[in-house]
User: What shape does this take?
Amino acid sequence: MSQIKKPKFSVLLVDDDPDSMDTDIEYAKGVVESTGHEFQFYVDKDGKGVVGILKDKLIDIIATDKNLIDDNLDGIKLIPKIRAENPYVDILFYSGQGITEKDRTD
Assistant: This one.
C-alpha cells in the first residue's frame, strides 16, 4: 500500500535582512516539516520582486517583514500589489521592531 503524500506548500518570504531571513526559513521549515508536508520557499530580498514571483509561481503563503528598508515600499504597501496578482493568498506580517503608538493608530 502506498503512503498518501501530503501537498507541497509554497511560501514566499520577503525580508531585507539576510540574518533574519535565514532564521525565518529555518523556523518555518521546522513548523512545516513537523506537519509532514513538503514545502518550497521563494525569497524576495526587498519586496520589489513580489509581483514577478506571483506571476510565475502559485504561492500559498506570503510572510513579509512589515518594515522593509525602502521607505516607499514596506510590507503594508505590498498588500495592493499582492492582491492584484492573487487575491486569495494568505499574508503574514512580522517585525523585529517593537510596536509604537503610531502603529496602533495607523
